[in-house]
């Protein structure tokens, strides 16, 4: 099976975890795009969606699904999103599509993070995928120096600004053995808007696409 077919498999499987008649948090990326399409095709009705990016908002609205601001809801029962890496405890690296800040904001509203990904995203230790960090521009060099002190090489993602208008640093060479500790530390650095480690907001459920079918990990 191709990677796209594996994504399609989990996108379809995730529809069963959507709570009918309730608000739904929707992430960003190629896997989520397939999920949005599968949800629309399923005929399952939700009250509306809170979206983590302009791209997902446009896709949802294209299917006639109502999208409201995060400010309009108190809680979401479920948030569905992809990941760039996920470990065996549900910790993730996210932000390969530059949507990490809004993703973390919407995930923070949710009771249950359902991660959908093909099996290539499952790793023992996070860090092979370059860690995305959204930063205030003037702080980029000093944030990069702090990562260098931890053994990471940070480079600006060229030609990319987030939906919030900020640049992204991609940090290579990290081995993130303690995701919660690193997320907590990097969050303290002046000029960091969001670090793409999702440990506080880890997945509660992962649906991983494999040639044999969907592997479910309950954390
Ligand atoms: O900023 C992007 C998000 O964190 C995505 O969820 C992540 O990059 C995975 O995307 P994809 O489903 O395209 O692999």
TrEMBL record:
Superkingdom of the organism of origin: Bacteria
Name a GO molecular-function annotation: ribose-5-phosphate isomerase activity
Residues bound to substrate are 28-31, 81-84, 94-97, 121
One GO CC annotation, please? cytosol
Q: Which reaction does it catalyse?
A: aldehydo-D-ribose 5-phosphate = D-ribulose 5-phosphate
Q: What is its EC number?
A: 5.3.1.6
Q: In which pathway does it act?
A: Carbohydrate degradation; pentose phosphate pathway; D-ribose 5-phosphate from D-ribulose 5-phosphate (non-oxidative stage): step 1/1
- UniProtKB keywords: Isomerase
Active-site annotation: 103
List the Pfam families. Rib_5-P_isom_A
Output the GO biological process annotations, alphabetical, semicolon-separated.
Answer: D-ribose metabolic process; pentose-phosphate shunt, non-oxidative branch
Role: Catalyzes the reversible conversion of ribose-5-phosphate to ribulose 5-phosphate.
Q: Which HAMAP family match?
A: Rib_5P_isom_A (MF_00170)
Q: What is the annotated quaternary arrangement, including any partners?
A: Homodimer.
According to its UniProt record, which protein family does this protein belong to?
A: Belongs to the ribose 5-phosphate isomerase family.
PANTHER family named among the record's database cross-references:
RIBOSE-5-PHOSPHATE ISOMERASE
Q: What's the protein here called?
A: Ribose-5-phosphate isomerase A
